[in-house]
Every structure is written in structure tokens, then in C-alpha cells.
Amino acid sequence: MAVHSPRDPVKDTSLTATSESPGGRGQSVKCPVLRARGITKSYKRGIWPRRRDLLVLTGTDLELCAGEIVGLVGENGSGKSTLMKILVGALDADAGTVETAGRVGYCPQEPLLYERLTCEEHMQLFGVAYEMNADSASASAESLYDSLGFGRWRDSQVVELSGGTKAKLNLALALLPDPDLLLLDEPYAGFDWDTYQRFWDITAQRRDAGRSVLVVSHFVTDQQRFDRLVEMRDGRAWPR
User: Fold this and answer.
1) Strand, helix or coil at 177?
2) According to CATH, what is the number of the domain 2-239?
3) Could you tell me if 173 and 108 are in contact, meaning their C-beta atoms sit under 8 angstroms apart?
């Protein structure tokens, strides 16, 4: 996937640099698996004659390597979710480039689910969208039902689910294709304590397998679970 400004088109957006993965795991990986450069974004606000541009991102740079968990933090309105939507191609940047390597999974802050479909029907539908074969999609779904603890709801429609179970399904759909890069926007806001612990177990397993995870949150309570934190401030991403 690549996102680039029409003002500054980029012809070759593949990431091919190879290096050791972070943490000394000794795997030969593509690094970075995500590279964002000079991302800018503004929104129109107000009505004429007081209409103005609200500049949210002012040239944001961000990189993620294989085998690391990175937290993107910042105050409400700092541009975290705007940047996330640009990274996954759900929103166009005004300028800048985004390059990724491998398959990308995205878990939006608000679950984007079909109320009349069951959990199992969602798994099947997304499996087709990810171009997975039926056996692989089914095996992955079974594993996710077990690891996130919501298998008994597989035949329930979304309209029948609690907020917490919807959040589990939302995460499971992002994890279904075993993506190389997982982008999560406030993923554990609706989780109970048990699911919160399960989430971090899954995240740690993915890091150990050389996968990358970017977690967007307005606050971080367990800093030790991250390899590093990046703070959105003044429209840019700063090491913390």
C-alpha cells in the first residue's frame, strides 16, 4: 500500500532494506515495514467569512521496523487518529508519502461492522476480502475465537453483541490474515481486564514472531509493554 501526494508523486514505494530486527532477535527482516515522510493534513472549519484552515499534521515522519511494538500517544485532537487513517489509506494526506512492506491489518477506533451479519459471517467475508483460502481463514478464525475468548458468540449477529464483544470482533478481523503490520486505534477501550491481558499476550507473541504493531492511544499505563513511544505534538511525531 502506498499513499502519496499528487503534488509530489512517488513512483517506487516498495520497502526493501534488510536488517536485523529490534531486540536482538536475529531475524532477517525488512526494516522499516512502515515509513511515513512529511505527512501534512488540514481541515476546513467554520463558515464564510470566518472559514479557516485547521492544520492538524505539519510534516509528520514515522518509521516502524519488524518485531517492535510502538505506542503513538498524545492529547485529544493532536492528530493521532488522522495520521492512522492516512497510514491505512482511509484518508488522503495533503502532502507526504507512506510506504509499507507486507500485509497490513487495521483495527479502527469505532468498530466497522455489519449489524445483521454474525461473527462467523464477518470472518468469512473478511477472509475473502483478504484473499485467503477458506481453510486458512477458518483455521485463523478458530484460533482468534479461542485467544480472545468469544467463540460462543460466533453465530450471533452484531446487533446482539455487547460493546466489549464487538471490540473483540473488530480486533479479530484485523488479525485474521496474520498481517506483517498491525495498526490499532484505541484497540482496548472496550475491553474488560481479562481481554486486556489477552490482548497484550497476543501482541507480545506477534512481536516475537517478527510482526510489527502500532498502537494509538491517548494514554499509556503499561509503558514496559512497548519497545518505544512516539508522541504527537505540534502536528508532528516526537520520540518520547
Assistant:
1) coil
2) 3.40.50.300
3) no
